[in-house]
Structures are given as C-alpha cells and as structure tokens.
Amino acid sequence: MSQILRLPINLRGIKLQIRVKIISIMLFASTQIFGNTLKSQDIYKVQIYLELKDESLINAFKKIEAESSFYFMYREEDVKNVTNLNVPRSKQSIAAFLQLILANTPMSFKQVDQRILIIHKNSQESTNQSEGTHYAQKPLDVFEDIVVSGFVTGSNSDPLENVSVTLKGSSIATLTDEKGKYKISIPMDGVLIYSHVGFETQEVAIRNQAVINVVLRRQISTLNEVVVTALGIKREAKSLTYSTQSVPTENLTEARDPSIMNTLEGKVAGLSINSDGTGVGGANRVVLRGDRSISGDSQPLYVIDGAPIIGDISDINPDNIASINILKGPNAAALYGAGAQNGAIIIETKKGRPGAINISLNHSSQVLSPINSIQYQNEYAQGSGGVYDKTSESSWGPKMTGQIVPSWSIIPADSQKTYALTPQPNNVRDAFQNGFNTSTNLYASMGSEKIQSMFSITRTDVQGIVPGNTLGRNNFAVRLTSQLTDRLTLDTKIDLMQQVIHDPIVEDISDLNQVKQIYMMPRNIRTEDARNYSFVNAQGVIRQNFWNPGSTYGLNPYFLRNRYHDTETKQRGTAMASLSYEFSKSLKLMVRGAYDVINGGSEIETSYDFYNTALNGGYSVSKSQTSLFNSDFLLSYTKKIHKDWNFNINAGGNTQQQRQNLLNGNTNVGLLVPDFFTLSNTLFPSASYNPGPNIDIQSLYAFAHLDWKNAVFLDVTGRNDWSSTLPASHRSYFYPSVGLSAILSDLIKLPELISFAKLRASWASVGSGGPAYMLSRTATFTSGGNNGFLELSSILPNPDLRPELTNSYEFGLDAGLFKSRLNLNVTYYKTNTLNQLFTVALPPGSGASEYFTNGGNVQNKGLEILLSAVIVKTRDFRWQADLNFSRNRNLVLQINDQRPKLIIGSDQSFRDFVAIQGQPFGQVYSIGFLRDANGNVIVDDRGVPLNTGSRSVSVANANPDWMGGITNSFSYKNFNLSFLIDVREGGTVLSVTKAVMANAGVTKETQAGREGGLVFGKNLFPNQRAVTQDGKPNDIAVDPETFWTSMGGFVNPVGEAFVENMSNVRVREVIFGYTFPRSLLGNLPVSQVRLSLVGRNLFFIYRASHDLDPDISIGTSPLGEGQTSFAPPSTRSYGLNLKIDFK
Amino acid sequence: MKHAIKIHKIGYLAVLAGLLTIFPGCTKKFNSLNTPQNQIVEENIDANLLGQEFAFAQYNTMGIYNYSYLWYSILYSDRFAQYTSNNTSGFLSDEYVVSGTHVASLWTNFYGQVAAQIYFVEQYTQQHNMPLENAIAKILRVKSYQPITDHFGPVIYSQFGNSKTTVNYDSQQDIYTDFFKTLDSAVAVLALNPGKNAFGNNDQMYNGNVDQWRIFANSLRLRLAMRIVYVNPALAQQEAEKAVAAGVMTSNSDNGYIYCTVNSLNCLSTSTYHDEWRMSASLYSVLAGYNDPRLPVYLAPRWDGGGYRGLRNGLPVDELAPTFFQTYSAVGNRWRPLYAGIWGAAGDNEPMPVITSAEVYFLMAEGALRGWNMGGATAANLYNNGITMSLSENRVGASPAQINTYINGISLPVAINDQWNSPPMCNIPVSYQSSAGFETQLEQIITQKWLALFPNGWEAWAERRRTGYPRGYALIESLNPNLTKFQLIRRMGFSPDEQADNPAGLKTGLSLLGGADQNDTRVWWDAKPLGDYPPPTN
C-alpha cells in the first residue's frame, strides 16, 4: 500500500504526505477488519467454514463463493453430475476443501487472480499441470482452451465497430472490427460482456458455444439511465411520468467552485441560482420554476441518500457525489411533502464497490481574479461645486491638473502636508487582489461481496478577491454497506464538515461593506495614502485616518479591512443508517434514520472609531445549532401479474423533527478597554437565547407504479401529513398525485426518423404546514425598567389556519431522432400555490400590525426544453452539444380580498418589494419621475425631473424572460474540450450602487457636462421626453452635480433613474482535459491520470449593464431580488485539475 | 437451514426493533412544541406580569428605542421647536420636508407598541377589578395620545383595538373632550385611595405612589386645558381652574420624570451617538444673552475649542459643511452616550422629564395673565417660580443667589457670529415685564417655558404653534411647497402606510381634519388669529 502511494506523495508535497500515510494506515486497519478482499490472497491460505450435506458440486461452489471473494469457472457438463457431497462442518483453507470434494472426480482446480478454474482432466492434455501445482509461475495462456468468435450488430443489422467484448470478472477483452467481427480466447466457460457507447450493455453466457452473434439495442442516453426518484427509489428514466434532469457529476470536481450549486449554473432548465454578496463560501439562492411562496423563500428541498437535509448545500463535498437528480416540480417530489412543493434536488453519495481497492487523488488549483466593471470618471477630484474639499466624500471637485492641495490625512504628522491632485484610476483595482482556490481530495473505496466501504477526505482553501476574506474547509466521509445476511442489508454513513470563513463581506449599504467603501473612494485618493489607515492619538487610542472624520456613511476601506474582523465557523455532521430486509424477492422492508446537524459560530471584533456602528468598538459572539432528524420506513411489494403487467406498490412513513436555537452575547454599546475583545469588557453586556422554531411533521404515504408491456406507465401517490404548526382541527392533511406515460415508439409504428418517442402527463398536489408559532399571540420579555419589560407581539394569531397547497400539472414529450443522435425533451408545466400562510397588514390602530392568514394564489407556468445532439462522431472525434432552455411566467392571481397588494419587504430608503394581484411576483416599486398626461417627464426650473415623492411607480422586476445554456463537448482521442455558455434574457433591478455612486460623482456617467451642463431628455437620459412645468419641451441645462445629487443618494433616491437590465451571455465553464494513455504511464502504480485546464465565469459575451453581475444578489431571501447594492465584483477563475487513479 | 432461519429471524427482529425505536409517533407534544419557549403566551399574562407590560408602555411613551426617537423627536419636533438644527446631508426635515417613512414609523410604533400595551393593561385591569391600576393606565393613555393628536389632528382613538382592517379616526375635539372625562374618572378613583400603591417599582415615574399620580393627572389636565385656550376659552378656564383647585405640582419633588436604567436608556442619549445634528441658533442666542446657567448644561463646547455656538435651522444641503460638527455646539454632555467615547465625557443617563413643576408654574402664569383663578398668585410670581424650579432642577443646580440674579436679569439675547450674521433671536429680557402688553408677557412666559421644557420638543413645538413663541429664526430655506421659510410648520401629514393599510379609516381622518392633508393645515386647537403671531427673526 504505502509503496503504491509513494509516487503521488512525492509529487504532492510534505503536508499531503502525512495525510496520505494516515489514510493508508486506516485502510490497512479496515482491511484487517473486513478480510478476504485483497487480490493477492491465496486459496491455500484463506480459511473458511464449510459444511455440505448431500449437496451438489455446484452448490458447494456457491457456498465457497458466498464465504469468500473468489468465484468459480467451470463447464457445466463437467460438474453438473457431481452430487451427494458430504463434508462435516469445519474450518480449512479453500484449497483443502477443494482437494477433498474433487478427490473422486476427474477434475482439478487452479487459481487465477480471484477465479478458481475447475479443469476436467480430459480436456487438459495440453498441460502437464498436476493437482495443487502453484499457478503463479505459469503464463495465463496456459489455461486458454476456448476460442469464441462472432458478429455484433445493431438492431437494424448494421455491423457495430469498436464494441468491447470482455470476459466477466477478468481483464481479458477485445474489440470488434469494422465489420463487427470479434474473436476472443478465454480460459474455460464464463460470461461475455458486450458494451458500446450509446448501446445497452449485454451479457451472454458462453456455455461452450464457439460462435456467439449478438444484437445490441440502442440506448437513448437520457432514457435508459437509472435515476434516483423520491424516497431514494431507483427507476429507469423511461418509466417516469414527470420531468427530471440529472447532471453529470464529473465537472463538479473538475471545474470546481467552493459552492457546489454554482457548478450547476446554466446546466439545468428551469433552475435559477444566485450567490449572495458575502465573498468566498457565500450561500446560494436556488429556485426551480419560479418564485411561488409569498412569505417563504421558494427554495427546493435537498435530499441526500434518501433523507432531507437542512437548507442549503453549498458546503457539501462534491467529491463524494455519485449522482444529482433534479426533480423540478411538485409532481416529481410529491412524496416528500412540504418543501417539495418547490421541487427537490436529490443527491446520492458514493458507495464502496466489491472488488479491488480504488484509490484516487484529485487536486484542483485555480486563480480567482476580480472582474472590475464599474466605470469611473477620472477627471474630477474630491469636493463640491467644482472646489476641492479634503473632507468631502464626493467627487464634484475641480478638474485634476496636478494642482497642489492640502492633504486629507488627519495624522498629526501629515495633516499639514500638501500633494499634487492627479487622477487615481487604479485606486479601486488596487484594493482587490487575485485570490486562489485549491482543493485536494483523497478517495478510497474497497469491498468484499459482503462489506463495502468508502472513504473520502477533502481539504479546500480559498482566498477571495478581497484581502482577508478566506475559507478553509475539511470534509471527511465514511460509508459502509454490508450484506449482514442474504436478506438483511445495512447501509451507514458519516459525513463531517468543518469550515472557517474569515471576514465575509458585509452586504448592501452598510458602512461595514468593504466593497462599498472601496467603490466610493474619491477619484484623487492615492492608494498609498489610504493605506495609512490609522494612527495613535494623544490619548493612546488608535484612531481612523479618513478624509471625512465622523462620517456616518464612510470609512477608510483599509481601516475597515484591518480593524473589523468577523470569523464564521461551521461544523456540520450528517449521519445515516438504513437497514433493509428482503422477506422474499417481491417483498422488502427498509428502515432508516438520518440526522443532519449544523453548529454555527460567529465572532465579530470591531475596534474603536467606527463612527456609525461602533464608536467605542464592540465584540459579539453567536452560537447556533440547527438539526434535522428524519426517520422513515418503506415497505415495497413488486409483482408480475401477467406477462404484460407489472406492478409495484409501496407504503411508508416518516417522522421529521426540526430543531434550532441561537445564543448571542455582545458588548452592547461598546468596549471599556479598546481592542480587548471579551464579553466582560463592557458596562452593559447583553445576551439572548432563542430556541426554535421547532417543528415536527409525521407522515404516512403510499404509492403504486403499474406498467404495461414496459411501454405504458401509471404512477399514483398519496401522502398524509400531521404537522405541529397547524391547529388540531387542520393538523392532518392528505394530498395525492397521478402520472401517466406512454412510449409511443413501442406501441405504434413511427417514421424511421423517430427512434424513440414518449408522452407523459401528470398532476400533483402538495401540502405544507408552513412556519411555526402562528396559533397564539405571544409576549416578549426584555430587559428594561426595574423588573423588565413585557411586550405583546403585534401579530394576531389565527387559530383556524389551514395547510398551504400547491397544485400542479405538467405535460411532456421525450423523443430520440436520427437513431438517437438527437434527443429532445419538452415539458410544459403550470403550478398554482394556494392557501398560502402569510401575514396581512392591519392598520396599527386595530391593535395589531398584522394577522396570520391563508390566502393567495401564485401561478407559475412555463416551458422547458432540453436538446442533446451528437453532431459529429467518428472513430477518434466526437462533438456533442447539449442545450437547455426555460421560460417561466409568474403571476400573482390573488392575495387577499381586503389586501390586493402586499408589501413583502421594503428598504429604508429605496424600494418596496411587493406581490400585487394581476402582476408578476416581486414587483419593485420606487420613486419615479413625475409625468404629464402624455407620459413626458416634467422638469423643474433647474432642469431636474420632478418625482412622485413616494414609492408609487413599478420600476423593476427581476424575473427573466428566458434562460438557457449550451454545452459543447468535443473529444479527440485522449483530449476533450467542453465549454458552457449561458444566457439570461430580461429582468431588471434597481441599482442602489449606481444611485449612491452617481450622487457622489464618482461614476463615468457623472463626468459628462461638468462644464456647461446637460439637458434632461436630450443628452441626459435621451430616451425620455421631458417638458418644463408650463408644458414646453425641456431645454434647461442642469449641471450634473445638481442633477445626480437630486436623483441619487442613500435617502429616497429616484429609483426610476437607476434601473439596470440583467440580460447577459457569458462563458460559464470551460474544461480542456487530457487523459494520459496507459502506454505513457508505464510501470507507475497508477491506472489513470487525467489533467485538465479549467475556467469558470471567464468573460461576458454580452452584458446589457456593465455595472453588475446579476448572479450576485443580496442575501438569499426573495427580497434580494430586484435590487443590487454594492455587490463585490464578479470573480473569474481559471486553473488546473489533476486526477490520479491508483492501481 | 436452521442456521439460515435463525439469521432471517434476527434480521426481521432487527428491522422491527429499528422501526419501533425511531417512530415515537404521536401528536400529543405538538401543542407545546408549537409554542415558543422563550416567550409568554398572551393567555398566561397575569396580574404579576401586568406591571412589566405597563413599564414597557410607560418607557416607550417617551420615544420608542433610539431610531424612533430620532425620527419623531430629534428630526422633527426638536427642529420645529428650534432646539436643534440639522448638519447632515441625509435629512431634509429641517427644511420642512417630512419623510413618509419616518411618519409611518412614528405612527406604527405608537399604535403597535405603546397603545397596544396600554389597551391590554386597561382592559385587563377593568376585567380583573384592579381599579387603581386601571386609573393609572387611563392617565398614561391620555398622556401618550396627547402628543399624537397634537402632531396630526384627528387620529385613531376610540376605535383602537377593534382588530379590523378598517379603523376610523376621531376628531381632535372629541379626543380632548374624552381626555378630560378620562382624567375625571381616574382622579376620582385615586382620590378615594390616598396612600395606596399600584404597580410598585414597575412604575418608573413615582414607584406606584397613587397620590403623586393624582397630582400628575391634575397637572396634565392643566396642560391640556391651556392647549385649547384659543379654540374654547371657556372650557379651558373651567378645566384649568379645576386642575389647580384639585392640586397640581408645586415643587421639583412632584416632577414627573421617567427614570432610566442601563437597560432602558435615556432616549436622547441613544441618538447623540450618531452626532448628526447640532444645537440651534435660537437656543444659543437666548441662553448666551441671558448668561443662563443652563447654557453649559444644554450645550456642549464646540469640538474645535471655540466656546459655544448654535446653528441656524433650515440649511440647504449645499450650504452644509462637514466642519459644522466641529464649529457648532452639540448637545450637553449629560445627554451624550453612556460611554466615554472618543470625543469626551460619558453621558448621565438623565431621567426623561414628562411634566415638571416648572412647566406647571408657567401654565399657571399664563392662566393668571388671562385672569383665571390660579390659586390667587400673580402672573409675575408664578413666572418667577417657574424659572426657580427650572434652575434648581438637579441637572442645573443653580444657587439661590444665581437664581435671584437671573430672575432680575435685563440682558437680551445675542446676535450670532455666523455666515448669516444672525441678529438676536428676540428682544425680551428675563425680568418679567408686568406693565408690558399681553403679547409681550405671554412671549416672556412661553419663552421661559421653552427653556424649561428642554429637551421636550413635542411640547415646545405644540406651544410654539399655539402661541407663536419663542418667535425663533426664519429658516434659511424651506423646501416644502406649502410653507415659506417664515412660516411655522403646523402639523405632520398622515402616515402614508394608512393609505395602504387603512384606506377607509384614513378617509374619516381626512374629513375630520377640515383641510388638506398638508403641513400647513392647522389642527383644531391651533386657533390663534394668524395676524397675532410675531414674525420670526431673520
């Protein structure tokens, strides 16, 4: 073992060496425990228990196979007549048993690797081998006694070239020639495997035949694959009655991203993914088929190895993932109950496999570079009215011509200095850096027939584009599958993750947002000056050096970077154990328990002199725990009732317990001793503990699957939930689904062009209990006064709440054309989410601010198309294109009779995010231009547009018109190249970034007209038509400072002036890989080496707005949609990936 | 085979056992699970917990938490009263632009937090036969609704708590009428229970002393009576005389202060932390001119070391210089944050004055000036008593000699050395001019009351609207289309949220207002003839 590993150890460096050694020790240890696994074992040494009572020789072989990892090869006629064997129960070597039971027969035995050959003496003239002779010195061809040949064709009798023909369980193999002919020499009897890309693999027992001709059936790539559906049930894709899409998992580890969901972007029709703006390791917002929940977040359910897990999966290790399957609509996911109304993402992790040890090492290194796209003006300095002002946070000052001005520095030694005023075009770029992302995974799997194990460990280090923002993560997983008896199977898994993120970026317009402070630097601030961010004053306190001391919005970005620190820790453990018992071939019972727990921690240290947030510094510690315990059982019964009819019926139950709590302690208004970060360093320590919300859901369900001639399929499901969040009267609720599909190509004769065609339709209803604590009015106890304060909640309970319901239907067509070189999937769906649980605003004068209610009807309908085509295919070259397209139309049909408009969220100064009857979900309302009856913008006597004063104008909606992606994959011999281009068309956001930056005169657009002014409607917003208050066309020139300070800023800016289009086309992912041929690997102890160059988010081919990357949103709630606010620059990453599989 | 059967049996049992272990399966725990552990359910609030609920409401009548206090006191009434002025480009309130968000917050916080708790306490004490607590809750209700109706005119009052999507407004006249009635019934109960206690030390003003609450209620009645003097002089006189006869505050030991704790800070202290405003030129001109002992208490020395100076109200954004925060005075140190910050001393977590004896004496002085029976004292005596009370309050602590000098002072307010060359704010001395005309005497009384009320901007702005005093400075600029820089803002517009949340109810408010929903529309009691108002200094 350790010898095998020596080569990669030397390549990978010292740190890894230690880890690998530890792993090899562990593997050895487990090898000892599991026994009987290594191929170097000898039948003369391996001892087993055996007992035979009047049994046949074949049975004896089977028993030995069951007790060991060896298997027998023999000619049936040689052995079938040997019966009535008796051996008392004893423990001996396999060879000793074989000598005993073959003693009175004309047969002998030999070991070749894991095989034991049974040789009839009559057919062994060519050799002089005697019984028991050691096999090792003899070449393998000594045992060749059979030559099999034949032709392999497709179903239309065309010969198939390059079909691989392999003897099962061995490395003996050959390929067919251009006529489909093959010839293979093999030792004794056995099974031949015929496999070819694009065709179904076939196995044929030789049974002493010399000629075997085989017809291979063409495989419809997306249809014959096995997909994991609800409750972990594996089914052939062709039998499904609803739409699912699985994602190739190789790219997840090859073109890696610290968050696994980012690697799915652009690949799945109907899936939209955003990242928050916190930098490395940020969370994702994932939505399938549009927002549908008024108060919830519309995100799908994640299920790993059959059990739902907590929230987002950005920290899951991609190295362990065997498959990802996306159940897009409620139809597919109905059986999962609440949460699945938003679809489900089903992940299966890898298991160990019987046979040889597999060890592989995967290393990835990437450079992350910022794409700074905001355009600045580089002509005018700090100040206002054209006059330099060293304390200004705006750039409305004079033209920079090298004039000598006073330094802005307040460091006593520097404050009297002067410097030449010159543009600093790079001061923003200087504040960012190139980051990196490295990840190394060691994966090992091994197993016997009885026990299989998998082990995986990954270390990830990321340094973001903002210095100090780093991530370190360790993932560790072990999985053990065991066949305890013939009928009882145990599957267990432990997956641990530990992560530390330093200095995540604070989002939005917070003064702690580094990105904001960097973007807002006046255009004359020299990087070297700004880097002198602090000094010690006469009182010995470290003070901030900033151009506008005491500002409530601004900070020196370098002071913020170095004097404010946030450490976010996270430990996650997922454990699963599942036991299944096979009563008979048709009846099975599975019982499973799974536990997912996340321990989160946050520690924030703020130094003195953060004027607005922590004048006296501060310290805050939070600890949280979130857990989900799931237990379920499933009883399955499968029966063939007639040669054409199959059915499968299942019944199961689940209990789910969600628990969480949050503990926080902080120093409240400040520290007594600066920069000493402990909770006792304050006059008023503050602490809080919030347990919950806690939710229990119990469920029973049943589903049936019926198929006729393997061509028509019917699915019926029903589930009943009992949710702790609902009143006793409505606690229990039932919801069904039904689906039907027919494979037309198997039922009727279709034109030659169409090789496969399937129609499917399904209808589903999914219920959800909604959030906890809506049934009673509570009062919060807080500190205050002499004995504390008690405050009644302003939300009125509703003791009559009912469950939420999502009804949906979908229709689809799957077709294979041109001999399945072209595959098409089309799905149309419509979902309506009704009885939503949300709060409706009451006038505060009613005694409460809102009440819980059921209502609303949010509709999503749309179309998804997947197209996959093999465009060119020759012996060495292959070009495949995979295209996906989706469009979703979202409409709020109803909110509440008394409240047709519901403000879901609002910012203090900028916008309302609303659901309003008759409009799409997530309309953004803001202050707009005041217009006359003809739609002309009215300007005041300064030439500045008048505005509506309140947020009465609908200005933006982030819903795209359509989204799509196309992956082109090329392979030539051992090279392959793939690139993914994705498209987002339509959708608009309000840009807080622009409103605030334009107000400060730093952006490019504020440069024009500084001398002479601009006319609104002509050379300023030329797309608008503007009139003066007396109705005449506007020709008043306004100076840009007056204009942009009236339009922009933090407080109530005119949102309509800052709407950005989100359309873009980008190169999302590029992989160029090379697999080293075996001839190059020579004697190295490796079976495969693959090196690839990868790039992610390389560049935009088209972008409607140069100032934003629509993929980055604020946070992960729906409220982040429709707005962009000081998000960090997009990150381009490129690097390499090396994967080594060891022998 | 036997062996095999045994294994099967074990497997079967294992699965069954697993099944039983992981399915505790019942819904019995659901009710307790669905109740937040760290909160109290409404049904479980009893007489013991009622005190904490009363305490929450009482504290929050002073301005709910830091931001809300900023939003409706510092940014608005304190500006309109010309206690403070703006030096931050982020806010336009000093130029008479009222942010809808801020108004909505004031409205929502009052009704959502204060009114809702008082309502609960009042209902509970009614149902559970707790007459003393019920009477005190009623007084707190009057006290807390008064600034709300004074801000807007018609507001939600009698319909509060109907749990409906429409809540109608009441006219200010009806509300004031009910205020007097409510005080009648509360005082009647308290008068029958001398020496008793209610709410104990959950009462942050009088530790539950019922007798002091009775005096407080009478003093509140006097304030309310004077407020309506221009619209209903007869009722005003009747209620004022009734109040004085029943016993009002006579010394600083009667003062109604809400005492602050480390967990319920002085509302002004929590906002000074931001340093977004400076002291007004009006306050500075008068205090400096009178050599007022309150000057170093109310104002902090300039950060740049240049002594004291106040800033004019209504500065256009482009005239604001970032240096203003160093060259004009901030509020006095006792209202600074409780931490010794980078810029100086720690604050004192001052008690927050609700009604003080100084205010009561000035109210009586005005009554006497109007010829009412205020216990037989003259306006001049009562005026001097008011000043004495204010100067001898703990926060000032002037000596009797200092007070005597001050009372007889004839110096006048000073001009201000600023970029506008601001003249003195007014030309009256401290010394009471008994022989001067009615308006001059009224100006003296109200100007001194304005000084004594500090930092109670709600009351000072209301009195400025009612009487025109202190005359104040004109704004540098008004951005409100309905108000010139020489005019005083007369009310706040209704909350924009009401348009969305309570449109039908808002309509009743608009019709009761009797004018446009604008900042220049006068509320019911704001009835002094416009011609009688002095023009502001410019």
Q: What are the defining features of this structure?
A:
heterodimer; A: 1143 residues; mainly beta; 22-stranded antiparallel barrel; 16 helices; 65 strands; 47% strand; disordered N terminus; B: 538 residues; Serine Threonine Protein Phosphatase 5, Tetratricopeptide repeat; two-stranded antiparallel sheet; 20 helices
Task: Please characterize this protein's 3D structure.
The complex is a heterodimer of chains A (1143) and B (538). Chain A is 10% helix and 47% strand. The N and C termini of chain A lie close together (10 Å). Chain B is mostly helical. Chain B has a single domain, classed as Serine Threonine Protein Phosphatase 5, Tetratricopeptide repeat. In chain B, the strands form two sheets. Chain B has a two-stranded antiparallel sheet with strand order 2-4. Chain B has a two-stranded antiparallel sheet with strand order 3-5. The relative contact order of chain B is 0.13. The model of chain B has no long low-confidence stretch (mean pLDDT 91). The interface between A and B is large, with 99 and 93 residues.
- Radius of gyration of chain A equals 35 Å
Q: Tell me what the CATH architecture of chain B is.
A: Alpha Horseshoe
N→C terminal distance of chain B: 111 Å
Helix content of chain A: under 10%
For the secondary structure, the number of strands of chain A is 65
Assigned CATH class of chain B:
Mainly Alpha
Strand-residue proportion of chain A: over 45%
Low-pLDDT sequence parts of chain B: none
Short description:
The complex is a heterodimer of chains A (1143) and B (538). Chain A is mainly β and 1143 residues long.
Summarize the topology.
The complex is a heterodimer of chains A (1143) and B (538).
Chain A: H1 2-12, H2 14-34, E1 47-55, H3 57-67, E2 71-73, H4 76-79, E3 85-93, H5 94-101, E4 107-112, E5 115-120, E6 146-154, E7 164-167, E8 173-175, E9 181-186, E10 191-195, E11 202-205, E12 214-216, H6 221-224, E13 226-228, E14 234-236, E15 244-247, H7 250-254, E16 271-276, E17 284-288, E18 301-304, E19 307-308, E20 321-327, H8 330-333, E21 344-349, E22 355-371, E23 383-384, E24 387-388, E25 404-406, E26 418-420, H9 427-430, E27 435-447, E28 451-463, E29 470-483, E30 488-502, H10 514-519, H11 527-530, E31 534-536, E32 542-544, H12 557-563, E33 564-582, E34 587-606, E35 618-642, E36 645-666, E37 686-691, E38 695-708, E39 712-723, E40 732-743, H13 744-747, E41 754-768, E42 778-782, E43 789-792, E44 795-796, E45 804-817, E46 822-841, E47 850-873, E48 877-894, E49 901-906, E50 912-916, E51 923-926, E52 937-939, E53 953-956, E54 962-972, E55 975-985, E56 988-991, H14 992-999, E57 1014-1015, E58 1026-1028, E59 1037-1038, H15 1040-1047, E60 1059-1061, E61 1064-1075, H16 1078-1081, E62 1086-1103, E63 1112-1113, E64 1123-1124, ...
Parallel strand pairs in A: 2-5, 6-12, 16-63, 18-21, 44-47, 52-58, 56-64
Antiparallel strand pairs in A: 1-3, 4-5, 6-9, 7-8, 7-10, 10-11, 13-14, 15-20, 16-17, 18-19, 20-21, 22-27, 22-65, 23-24, 25-26, 27-28, 28-29, 29-30, 30-33, 31-32, 33-34, 34-35, 35-36, 36-37, 36-38, 38-39, 39-40, 40-41, 41-45, 42-43, 45-46, 46-47, 47-48, 48-54, 49-50, 50-51, 51-53, 54-55, 55-61, 56-60, ...
Chain B: H1 2-22, H2 30-33, E1 40-41, H3 47-60, H4 65-80, E2 84-86, H5 100-127, H6 131-152, H7 172-191, H8 210-227, H9 233-246, E3 256-258, H10 267-272, E4 277-279, H11 281-289, H12 295-298, H13 324-327, E5 352-355, H14 357-369, H15 379-392, H16 400-407, H17 438-453, H18 457-467, H19 496-501, H20 503-513
Antiparallel strand pairs in B: 2-4, 3-5
Helix pairs in contact in B: 3-5, 4-18, 5-6, 6-7, 6-8, 7-8, 8-9, 8-14, 14-15, 14-17, 15-16, 15-17, 17-18
